[in-house]
Design a protein that fits this description.
- Keywords: Hydrolase, Plasmid.
- Belongs to the 4-hydroxybenzoyl-CoA thioesterase family.
- One of its GO terms (molecular function) is fatty acyl-CoA hydrolase activity.
- It is a single chain.
- By secondary structure, this protein is an alpha+beta fold.
- It has one domain: Thiol Ester Dehydrase, Chain A, CATH 3.10.129.
- It has two helices and four strands, in the order H-E-E-E-E-H.
- The chain has a four-stranded antiparallel beta sheet.
- The radius of gyration is 16 Å and the shape is elongated.
- The termini are far apart.
Length: 131
Amino acid sequence: MPFSDVDMHGHVHNGVYFAYVETALNEFLRLGGLSGRFDPRHNDVVYHVRKAELVYHAPAGFEDELDVTPRVARIGDSSLTFAVAVTRAGDGTPVADATVVWVCVDRATGRTTPVPDATRAALAATAGEDR
């Protein structure tokens, strides 16, 4: 991790974890071949973050390597919930857990709309989906 991510106590700054989580979610979708379903240039719907929550378990420092592992936790009618585990690489010590909720919105109207069936099916096929 970059030194700029660390606070004056030598710990990763609390807010930086959100950037790690967002990057991990984007990689999860990209590596799963799902990015296109969320690209606003090619879809009639967009997704807005409704909720982002972090629970901290242990500090991480400049020399620590972290694993940030997302999964689909729930597919609702018009929302998607992702759970993201942040652990210390090597020993697996839990550092933080994140929950991120996206709401599906119709681009034309700006109103909440159901998650498209094709997106729902693609996400449900990923490991760890609880529905």
